[in-house]
Amino acid sequence: MMVHLFAKNQQLKYTTIKVVLALAVIFIFTVPLYLLTCTSSSPPWLSFTNHILNPMINFGNSCNIFRGKWIYYPNGANSYTNLTCSEIFDQQNCMKFGRPDSEYLKWRWKPTNCELPLFNPVQFLELVRGKSMAFVGDSLGRNQMQSLLCLLATVVYPKDVSSAADRKFKRWLYMSYNFTLASFWSPYLVKAIETEPNGPIYDRLMNLYLDEANPEWAGEIETFDYVIISAGRWFFGPQIFYENRQVVGCHLCHRNDIENLTMFYGYRRAFRTSFRTLLTLEKFKGMTFLRTLSPAHFEKGEWNKGGQCTRTWPVSKLEMKLAEADLKLYWTQLEELNEAEKEGNEKGLKFKLMDVTEAMVMRPDGHPNHFGHGADENVTIADCVHWCLPGPIDTWNAFLLHVEEDNARKLRMRMIENCE
């Protein structure tokens, strides 16, 4: 009888502990930040909505959201269409230009040891309330930003507050959230000058000043809370490299009097300069994200020699791998981010990874191919670089939301510790 009572009491004890732990977890992940600031001021109840955090199922170190596989999701993972979002450029508007299949829309990313929820626009907007976010990079960065605009448009549409008509530099304001979203088109990240302004669009020789960040973004970025940095395909073209305003080498410049330093030299220093710029700006207190290399999927020829991307389903990670040059660019990005993160830790600045590369290697089906083009664009060249909207690129913003959530979760836990 005593043994029975002891066992029963122990079971009750463990049940009580589980309930307490569960309540503690709920408290940590649902109480808004302003309730954890150790102040006596009244919280703004009316402005708070209960969508701040949607924690992942697994919070352990074994969960890496960037490693996993695509799983079939017949209901579709996309919450918008080209009819509900007016911000889709024709180049990525695959529906408008008659792409006949839709299976590429019916997949979602499944991390190996956990779950990645679908993008929640209300949740995202609450996390960035009163803040600002900038995308800095080439047209793939703009591709992601337009995906974000479309995902958020299912809740609210922003006001265009751009100071110029140039669509390469845009700003939007979500007035009810006081959230600013901006795009700075800077494909080389550093200062770049065309040697032949009226020359060919493709393979145009550029002068790159590798130790000078492009002032068009560097001069505007200091007040932003989030900065997403990316660059890639433009570095495959011919360039002359300058440092301290002196020629130090080139890539594909075909000049015997200049040392060939390869594109990897310029690529590394472009990221190094960009990160150092953010590290040394006096007023910059924001969080920097590196969005890793987005792979191209030209098959049956190179981009200018008949290459196309006609697949309609994802592939396995064993079926497709990064090209050797892409892999080297990818590791270069990670190495420079690692160095920036070390220095950032000393200065209280956060550098985060948004690793889209593995997931996108498996999505050769997600490109426009010939189902998307501008009014004056050569439609004989397939686009196997950018991504259809809607499409698998929407997962990038689910990654972005997760990293923001994780940072907010850690901040809450630190605030709780400081209040004890």
Automatic annotation (TrEMBL):
Topological type in the membrane: Single-pass membrane protein
An MF annotation (GO) of this entry: O-acetyltransferase activity
Keywords (A to Z) from UniProt: Membrane, Signal-anchor, Transmembrane, Transmembrane helix
Cited InterPro entries: TBL, TBL_C, TBL_N
Places the protein is found: Membrane
Transmembrane segments: 12-36
Domain of life: Eukaryota
Domain Trichome birefringence-like N-terminal: 62-115
Residues spanning the signal sequence: none
Record-linked PANTHER family: PROTEIN TRICHOME BIREFRINGENCE-LIKE 9-RELATED, TRICHOME BIREFRINGENCE-LIKE N-TERMINAL DOMAIN-CONTAINING PROTEIN
Protein name: Trichome birefringence-like N-terminal domain-containing protein
Provenance organism: Rhamnella rubrinervis
